[in-house]
């Protein structure tokens, strides 16, 4: 066999041997590398979201968290579009049932019901947030034409201050004034609020935090 051919074959054998050795080292390092820690996909707010926001696909993204860091009540990403936030949410905050309008907002108030009411001055709602305590007053004209004000509900807890949404039932029913407020109230108080809303203008007074 010519000497030149022998030299070429020798060089090829060296290259193949080096490649095989490098592959063996890489495989060994891969086997020794620790497995990635377990994680769970969790839907979170893709940006800061206001109370009353009706969630769309672009409002939600998914991150992976260690199982021990996943909060209770996380809602599946596919179930979030169309749901309404009961309070503001920061970017990156996990989206749980306690952040959405629904039974979970009632929290420990087992005997309470979520009651929606419209207050005469929507500007008053700007200072309210979930957890605030309010008194609800009803103002109506008395027999002599003077205003009569009475307290309909005392120290009821605010659950949500939903933003107005196009096509909401309130707009369809002809409510062109007032802002929507959702509070937790016992059934008897909820009935009082409903009756007062039919005959009077409702206002709220906020208790100190």
TrEMBL record:
Signal peptide: 1-33
CDD domains in UniProt: SAF_CpaB_FlgA_like
UniProt-recorded name of the protein: Flagellar biosynthesis protein FlgA
Transmembrane segments: none
Species per Swiss-Prot/TrEMBL record: Vallicoccus soli
Domain SAF positions: 40-101
Keywords linked to the UniProt accession: Cell projection, Cilium, Flagellum, Signal
Taxonomic superkingdom: Bacteria
